[in-house]
Amino acid sequence: MSLLVMNNIKKTFDQLEVLKDISIKIDEGEILSIIGPSGSGKSTLLRCATMLESIDDGEIIYDGNYATSTKNGKTEYASKIELKKIAELYGLVFQNFNLFPHMTVMQNIIDAPVRVQKKAKEIAMEEALKLLNKMGLLDKAEAYPYQLSGGQSQRVAIARALALKPKILFFDEPTSALDPELTGEVLKVIKSLADLHIAMVIVTHEMAFAKDISDRVIFMADGLVIEEGTPLEVFASDNQRTKDFLGRYASML
Amino acid sequence: MTISQIMVQLAAGMGVSIQIFIVTLIFSLPLGLIVAFGRMSKNKVISSIVKFYISIMRGTPLMLQLMVVYFGPYYLFGIKISNSYRLWAAFIGFIINYSAYFAEIYRSGIQSMPSGQYEAAKLLGYSKSQTFFIIIMPQVIKIILPSVTNEVITLVKDTSLAFTISVAEMFTIAKALSSSQTSMVPFVAAALFYYIFNFIVAYLMEYAENKMSYYR
């Protein structure tokens, strides 16, 4: 059984069809990259998968639990309680981090596990320190977000998401707000997560990274999945649309 | 009347002024938050009613509002006004007026919060009230503190408006003493009182602002 199944997702913003019938599947521990031009609906797809946007039509199924289902041609969301349970399965790393500025790095990481998941504070702190160590930020535990660089902020945001132990972690252009040097350190950290065996869905413009890390790559354009396959298949595609897009990144590959 | 006798009389008025100040703050700061929620409500009926209330409170003189609160019960409903109602009328008038102003300050702060803070909180599983009180409100307080300071300083001076309904606060007594003694001393003393009061308020609010400056 797939960890996440999205069937025939449709989403329209003010008559603009952003997602036109998209279907994707993610298995446990799988790493999926979604590439494509700006405005192709990649971020919207993630926002729909994480319930930040509501879909107009389609099904979202996490681990067999229907977050939305279609009955008699109408799409309905599950109850708040069910959605809350489903929400424990996934986490999201934002493009602009969205750390809580009034909390230290440590508080940012442990507050949700302690307050929401009712984890003992000592255990949460221990786990947070392990995560910070993995992120190379052990010395920043007591720093406030304004004292961090963009790359450090994004690594804290990743640690914060991981602290809730999701089964699937979405990355919405995690390096788009960073300069090339900081991008490298964040990508290195994401790569190092592969051994955690959580599924990752990464929307990115870092083609070399996508090619390198992914089990599977999806190329999206104009609200549709144009191509899907292993990195080798997609990056060596004969599809003209895919070739045109990837051609612009040729120097990076 | 010696200066010290004048001071004793003024001191009593001072006590009443401080009382109006404190009671107004204790009630209007939390009420303002509730009014702000009403103003931002998705329910059109609630938000329009609250919007109307705020516009009346901001659009008419506080002096007139005090008079309406004080004389209203008699003129509108024929209820006999007792002498002890004076101070209550002042409390009520100040509270409903200041709640409206504080509500707008809260609203400006709450609406300035980036949506990303709400989204991050939602993804981390915070409930709506947790999101508001743990994530949003602490940041809002820091943002609105300078505007609140302004409003609180205005309140110190506005307490003198209770004079219009003959509440025996500082200014009422200063004016009475000044005319009976044909002396400027009560006015000078009153001015000093308001100035020192506000000096302390400004000092405390600056202290609070510094306390909040541990993050940016």
Write a structural description.
The complex is a heterodimer of chains A (about 250) and B (about 220). By secondary structure, chain A is of the alpha/beta class. Chain A has a single domain, classed as Rossmann fold (3-Layer(aba) Sandwich), CATH 3.40.50.300. Chain A has helices at about 40-50, 80-85, 105-115, 120-135, 150-160, 180-190, 205-215, 230-235, 240-245, and strands spanning about 5-15, 15-25, 30-35, 55-60, 65-70, 75, 90-95, 170, 200-205, 215-220, 225-230. In chain A, the strands form two sheets. In chain A, strands 7-8-9-3-10-11 form a six-stranded mixed β-sheet, with helices on both faces. In chain A, strands 2-1-4-5-6 form a five-stranded antiparallel β-sheet. In chain A, strand 1 and strand 2 (about 15-25) form a beta hairpin. The longest helix of chain A has 15 residues, at about 120-135. The radius of gyration of chain A is 18 Å and the shape is globular. Chain A starts with a strand and ends in a 6-residue tail after the last helix. Chain B is flat, with a radius of gyration of 21 Å. Chain B has about 220 residues and is an all-alpha fold. Chain B has a single domain, classed as MetI-like (MetI-like fold), CATH 1.10.3720. Chain B is about 80% helix and about 0% strand. Chain B has helices at about 5-40, 45-60, 60-75, 85-110, 115-125, 130-160, 170-180, 185-210. The model of chain B has no long low-confidence stretch (mean pLDDT about 95). At the A-B interface, helix 3 of A face helix 5 and helix 6 of B.
